[in-house]
Amino acid sequence: MAASSFSESSSVGTTVITSSSSDPESGSITYSLSGTDASMFSIASDGTVTIASGLDYETKSSYNFTVNASDGSNTTSTPMVISATNVNEAPTLSSTLAASSFSESSSVGTTVITSSSSDPESGTITYSLSGADASMFSISSNGTVTIASGFNYETRSSYNFTVNTSDGTNTTSETLTVNITDVSLSNLVTALASATTLESVNSGTSVATVSSIANPESETITYSLSGSGSNLFAVNSSSGAITTNGAFDFDSTKAYNLTLTATGSDDNATTTSAVNVNVKNVEEMQSNTLRYSADFSNPSRSGFTATATRASGPDGTSLGNFKEEQVVTAAASTADSKYLSSYANTSNMSSPVSIVSGDGAQGTTTVDNLDFRYWYPIGSTSGAGQYQFSPGQQALDGHYKTVDAESEVVLDISQSEVVNAGRYGNKIFWMVTDKAAATINYNAMQSGDTFVSTNYHTYLDQITFASQVYTDAFYNSFTNNNKRIIALNLMPIENHLASGTNDDFFYPSFFPSGLYSSSSMDFKTLGPDYCAGVGNDASTCNTYANNYDWAEQLLDVNQDIYTSRFGATNEMPEGTSQWYQILNPAGKGVGLQAQLSIQDTYDGAGGSTTRDDQQSYLGVMISSLDKRSNDLTRYTVGDTGQQLEGNHYWSYQK
């Protein structure tokens, strides 16, 4: 044996054993190897054993095989053991480019190479960079190479450096080349002139400008604009400045997502920037009429949440869920007043709207043409029916009637088709109908005394509500940027009975109508006593007209409903609270209203001792009022107005 042990780094061909053999009959001797590790070695014809495959101490520290000598008939064997000694070997390294080339506009931190390394002795690996361009890059502890300094194709089209890995004693290196591609334009940055753009702005108003663009070759740049609605904007092809070039309509489009593109003159290279223009609503209507259907179908309820499909107009028409019609706009600067009170008529109980745009006249004032009027079935004299629909006191119908038409067209609403109607001075008018949808065709006057054929469609069971628009400006002025609490009174509704008006009674809003559907009308005696609420005694409340006293006082702009909290007397019906609503300019304001009624003829020992007629009702209405601009989960930047929503919880037991 040449030695008892050999380094694992010993080269292939190194002699490990020399052998000699003789045959008594002087026969020819041949040598061979056998055993577990025989394949790791080779033996020559003279018996010299050499290394055939590299030794690896980490895999195996000793190798066992047998040297055989044969004369052709007999074989003599000698077992051998070769020991391998350990050598601290260099770590392995493999580096891979993330791409064949990289744009000169690639950002700092972009990965260009990933590396992997392992040490045969499982030592700790550390990475480093060296070479001419090593400072342009950085390498992390896991061997990832990233850009450390911006590229410049005009200065260098490739960068050369070496990735090194070390186990503390040995180092393995790999030289790499990163190729760079040319970019003529990049990094186009734009700045909006304002977070929102008013829908009423004039053409030519600045929307956005170019803040910066990377143009290393000083090319001539041409700008263009694309995206849905880009025709409403203009772009300066030389500077990239964007201005308005058409009329916006917040109700149809609340935001425009545009793309500004810069194109270079040398090779038509391009770079882009997103320009998102949020439109801000302008509260155009100062007074208007809102109408919609009280009917619905396909109700669906899940827990406390319910949905349904609201009815629309006649077949073949599309009115949407609601319709707004203007009385006078904010732009009508020559109008005497911008409130409904200046245009409503309390002598014939009607309110006008403009259906067809065009100039018209209201007295000596020029406003949009008021070519349609709603006539409400409300009396103009004192007493019951003065402020509220009262078929038992005043026989009045409602009408949808044209104004300034080539010939007047009227659609009548009979008393039997009216569910409820009323007014608050000349500031609010409403009418709830039980009437089929219909179409009115008439020739409406436009400016210049010309006429145009117009179709007016009503909703099924239409609700018509005319009032001043509660704008953000009014809200801000009223609250003065502070929380305020207002007290409201719910409008009672008259339940009309076929047996005659003397048996009618009033019930408050939010009561479920199903409570009044039975023939016995048990709940009549459980409803709030509005007549007694304003101080009438029992004998007076037997008079039909006096049952309107509370509603008349509520709807009279010159009177108030007092409670013990706000006045010396309490004029609220027993068991009924006012609706207290918080107005909060900075967020949501909560509102609350409750009604508790109990009826029982139990008198104890001196009278009835049965409780089979006991009834109770508890209703609680919880509301939430918030400015739309505070709730961007449901509304958009630039929206105006307020949202009022709530839930009514009730329980009836008998």
Outline the structure in words.
By secondary structure, the protein is mostly beta strands. It folds into 5 domains: 5-85, Immunoglobulin-like (Sandwich); 92-181, Cadherins (Immunoglobulin-like, Sandwich), CATH 2.60.40.60; 186-280, Immunoglobulin-like, CATH 2.60.40.60; 285-468, no CATH class; 472-528 and 575-653, no CATH class. The strands form 13 sheets. It has a 5-stranded antiparallel β-sheet, with no helix packed on it. The protein has a 5-stranded antiparallel β-sheet with strand order 39-42-43-44-45, with no helix packed on it. The longest helix has 8 residues, at 472-479. The model is unreliable at 359-366 and 517-521 (pLDDT under 50).
